[in-house]
Amino acid sequence: MKAWILSGTSERMIGTANTMLRRVPVWAVYLAGCSPAPVLYYMGLTGGLGVEPIKALEHELGLIALQFLLLGLTVTPMRRFLGLNLMRFRRAFGLLAFCYVCAHLLVWLVLDVQQLDQIWADIVKRPYITVGMSAFLLMVPLAITSNRGSLRRLGQSWHRLHRLVYVIAVLGAVHFVLLTKGFQFEPLLYLAAILALLALRLPPIRAKATT
């Protein structure tokens, strides 16, 4: 399967790309990944996010979090089917996703709702908030254990725990679909992309990748 895909893509180019990726320090990925946040906050303060800057800031932070989740899900298929190795950066993608979810949540809590009773009422009564909060709660143990020490201590349990990212990604996409008013293509595209990436992990497709 991999050989068939690479028939249209030079293996030499993939090898060159992997060599270049090995030279990229992980801290540079964190730095580049964090850079949109201060820009968005600045735009919100200076009127660059439109007439509803808080809502726009919430949306943009949440969307970036979903994009990092999606990026993290592409790592394994890209290595398996194309030979492109981004494994060094997968933890960074996950932690960046968590940081943006936290920022998204804080904007909603502190700048948008601001009332504790209203926060609980929204979580209970609004399905898109219920789904989004569920995704956040599932992300917390993954973020806490995203280190080598936890991997050593937990062993195979660590791998089983971190498979929750599949559920989290789906919940994040469903959250996006539910909060969107009317029919919009973008949230459905994210959901479809996540489901497709998860489908590539099914045993029959994984088996074809090794042949």
Outline:
The chain has 211 residues and is mainly α. It contains 13 helices and no strands. The longest helix is centred in the first third of the chain and has 30 residues.
Please tell me what the overall shape is.
globular
Task: Report the end-to-end length measured between terminal Cα atoms.
Answer: 6 Å
**How would a textbook summarize the main sheet?**
none
Q: How are helices and strands ordered from N to C?
A: HHHHHHHHHHHHH
Query: pLDDT under 50 segments (min length 5)?
Result: none
Tally of alpha and pi helices? 13
Mean pLDDT across all amino acids: 89
What portion of the residues fall into strands of 2 or more residues?
under 5%
**β-strand number:** 0
As a percent range, the share of helical residues equals over 70%
Q: Provide the number of structural domains.
A: 1
What structural class do helix, strand and pairing data support? mainly alpha
Radius of gyration: 19 Å
Structure report:
The chain is an all-alpha fold. The chain has one domain. It contains 13 helices and no strands. The chain is globular. The N and C termini lie close together (6 Å). The mean pLDDT is 89.
Present the secondary structure layout.
Layout: H1 2-6, H2 11-22, H3 26-34, H4 36-45, H5 53-82, H6 90-113, H7 116-125, H8 127-144, H9 148-154, H10 156-162, H11 164-179, H12 185-199, H13 203-209
Helix pairs in contact: 4-5, 5-6, 5-11, 5-12, 6-8, 7-8, 8-11, 9-10, 11-12
Name the features:
211 residues, mainly alpha
